[in-house]
Amino acid sequence: MTTSTRGTSKVPAVLVLEDGRVFRGRAYGAVGETFGEAVFSTGMTGYQETLTDPSYHRQVVVMTAPHVGNTGVNDEDPESQRIWVAGYVVRDPARVPSNWRSRRSLDEELAAQGVVGISGIDTRALTRHLRERGAMRVGIFSGDAIQDDAALLARVQEAPEMKGADLSAEVATTEAYVVPAIGEKRFTVAAVDLGIKGMTPHRMAERGIEVHVLPATATAEDVYAVNPDGVFFSNGPGDPATADHPVSVMQSVLERGTPLFGICFGNQILGRALGFGTYKLKYGHRGINQPVQDRTTGKVEVTAHNHGFAVDAPLDKVSETPFGRAEVSHVCLNDNVVEGLQLLDKPAFSVQYHPEAAAGPHDAAYLFDRFVSLMEGQRA
Q1: Strand partners of residue 348
Q2: pLDDT tens digits, residue range 237-252?
Q3: Less crowded by CB within 10 Å, the N or C end of the chain?
Q4: The model's pTM
Q5: How far is CA 76 from the centre of its chain?
Q6: Residue 215 to residues 48, 62, 246, Cα–Cα distance (Å)
Q7: Residues belonging to the active site
Q8: Does an H or E element contain 269, and which?
Q9: Residue pLDDT, tens place only, 49-72
């Protein structure tokens, strides 16, 4: 990605999909060029959390909500230290942000961090195209980066695909760090960072958990060096089929019977650790309005998602695995995609979505309490 940060209000921009579809608009954020996988997010709010979610690494995010940037950018809501999206696509950016916490405009923040975007295009048409054809490679070009369409298409088609991409180590911490418990410390959790969001260890800290966040390269020995009451595997980007190392670490945790909780990428890692396959969804689930049923209670939750891969596990039966019986605990009501797994003979479970849910909704916050209950049961 190459960028400059000169004024963008009237700079032309072009979005080119790998199948040759072209959209023309104006530059938004930095001026230059960028490449990634085109995906769409259906959330109407929470754009700061979306932009700073490491799971969006190497993806160009299309916002289906037409008006973006209304509340500007603050210094409290980011989920990590930087914007991770490869590019950003909006229809009608806010001309003037209005919020008491706002420190600068979204356009200014994107430009400052070198994120190339495009505005003024028909994002509804683009979203419908991606729903019909599937997520695909895309390039955004603005200013001097614009060439004839054929040359731009050739460059997009040379970009790497998401399938087969091993990305978690690129976004994870390189040094272990500790998030202290809020109030009285009750438990210690080793959290393997595959692209963790800042709100996740905070949600655990609220429950009296001291969280030791470890790099994606952490070994089973590193995990148990902190003497954990439980082990957590985070969300993250890339193809779970490439994640052999975290799968091996999780299998070691399962063998020892330590309470285990995984979310998003961590759910896919658990699926692989149990012997299930994974596959790429046509266009994935992204946004904060996805309906999921907890099959253990029958309750339907509105949940926050960001995943393009899923676990291939049977919905209609209990499966025998090397670590005992397992079943699908949660399912997406839109398309019956597996949204959660649980072991019946060991204290381990996972979900495919984001219970920390910044910027909401909070229907799934109980899952952190379920993790606490597993650790309480193990201690008893």
Answers
A1: 260
A2: 999 999 999 999 999 9
A3: C
A4: 0.94
A5: 19
A6: 24, 30, 11
A7: 264, 354, 356
A8: helix 265-273
A9: 999 999 999 999 999 999 999 999
